[in-house]
Structures are given as structure tokens and as C-alpha cells.
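Worked example

This section walks through a single chain of length 358. The input is the sequence exactly as stored; nothing has been trimmed or padded.
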Amino acid sequence: MTLTSMLRSALIASTALAGLGQAASAQSDEPLTYFTWAGYDNPEFRAPYTEQYGEDGVNFAFYSSADEAFSKLRGGFEADIAHSCVHDVQKWAGADVIQPIDTDQLENWPDLIDGLKNAEALQVNGEQMMVPWEWGASSVVYRSDKIDLQDESYEILIDPAYKGRTAIIDAVDEVFQLSAILAGVEDPLNLKDDEYDKVAAMMRKLRDNARFIWTDPGQLEQALASGEVDAAWSWPNSYASLQKQGVPVEYMLEPKEGLVTWLCGFTIPKTADAPEEQIYDFIDALEAPESGKALVENFGYGHANTKALEQVDQATLENLGLAGDANETIENGNLMGPMPEEQRQRIVDMWTLIKSGG
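Given that input, the structure is written out below as C-alpha cells.
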């Protein structure tokens, strides 16, 4: 072998080794941190990401409420992706805890429902601050073998006939929206001074009629399955879960007061330090059609990708109230959008006092 060919062989070998080293390094990089609610670590929601980065490519950090998440992020908690909702975006952006999102880096962005991704509440100064992921409606789930409803209404939760047989949620934005609707408030996101007392009185009615205030969906589902309670404020995932268990339940999809609707998705915290490409790959994986199909079928939530919804059986969508136009569902409901921070803090203080017995 000549000196030239030896050098060439050595160069090829070193290049190949370098390539192997880079591949190994990519697999051994620190996983990104996803800050979310418990339960969203379902592997089916991120299969395309796992195929690329492996099972250990993500760490999960859980919070119990958006307020807890906000406080931790403002305190410097390091996360690469945060799961937030439409009513959080303006507040989080105003506190400078999240950064703009480059939607050009998301392959699935063009397939997301226009009315969701272009919602004004998700943008600040013309920049996208949240990528929509799941949407739906919170409502009342009830035991259909014990309750025969003539008309669907949230008033069942304050009906003395069901005292001690109901449960309500410990989520301030939802219990506020529910209370304001039942109190007849015209614009819950912009309360008038004389309406705070009406909302507080309704919160107390809900509390006094309830057997308990739930924080864990599993706790609620067990109570409904065992017959401890007959009706409760719920999320679609609990309805879907109870149906799979064979529990006879119905979910109010046409309450006379209108559905309480919501939209959640992904934000990128200012503390993010994972590679940018990896962060966008993770978001894109959860926005993929197969991930969306898994979300609908496991949690009963709508997904932002139109192609995901097309993969779900029509009967399943109709059963969950997701067969119609997502924009109409959200806009025609009582959307839990942003409210003035002074108002929200008063509501938070009010609920904290009431749920503790005040």
C-alpha cells in the first residue's frame, strides 16, 4: 500500500469514527424538560419524537395548576416546553417568562386549524407565543342510571335535591366561569364591581352542595364509578375514561347555559436551554396526526391538527362533541380567555377563601 493510499484510508476511518461519535453524542444529549400536568406523559402523544431521540429524550416536570407553573417559571424554573392555555398567554408574555415561537420550524403548522392557531390571544405584538394543541369543553358528567334529565343545565350542581351528591373542581378559572354563568353575569372576563358578590355567592352555593372539591381526575372518576357522587364538573378525559370502564355516564354537550370552552398548547419558556431543533421536533411530534388521534381517543379532547381529526372514527367524535367545527364550538361557548390581572387576583383570593370555608 502506498503512503498516499494509507493516508486516504486513515482519513476515511477517522471520518467514519467521528460520524459514529456524533451519532452517539446526539443520543446521549441531555433530554429536554416538558413542564405539564400529570397524565400527559403518555408515549402515544410523542411517538415521532421518541423514534428520533429515544425513550429517554424527555424529562417530565408536573404541576397541579397553571398558577403554580407561572410562579415556578417566574422564579427561574428551567423548562424547555411548557403546557399552557389561552388565558395564560398574555399574562406569561407580560411577565417575560415565555418567548416567541418560530412557526416556520414546525412541519405540521400548515395543517393546524386556522381559527385556533391565528387566535389573537395566542399572539403578542404580532408574534406567536403559543402553538395550539388541544381544545374542548368542560361540562357536567353524570350517572345516567341515577339521573334522568329533561333539560341539560349546570344548575344540577346547585340543586338541593343533589346536595352531597355532586363534586366541583379546584381550578380557579373554571369554577369562576361556572359561577359567573350561573350567577347570570353578562361578561365574566370583564366583571363589574357589583358582580363580584354575585359570583362569590354562587361559588358558596356550589361548595355547599358538593360532597368534595376535586383536584385529581382519578379521584373524581372513582367517586362516580362507585356511586359516591351522581354528578360533577368534569373534563372530557374523565367522561371518556368512565365510558371505557363501562360506567353508565353522560356528558352535557348542550347545556342551556352554553359550554365552557378552552384551548391549550405549547409555549417556550425563557429558561429553555435544550437545542432549538430538539424543542421544535418535540412540539411537532405532538402536533402530528397520529399523536392527535391518540389524544382524542385517550383523553376525549379535540386536537389542533385537521388531519388528526380525520383519522378518528366519526361516531367517536360525535360522542365527544368534537364532530363540529372547532372554531364554532369554542366561539359559541363560554371561552376561558384572559381577564384583567387585577380581576383575576380578586377571583383567586375569593376562591381561596371560599373553598377553605369562608
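What to look for: The two ends are 90 Å apart (CA to CA).
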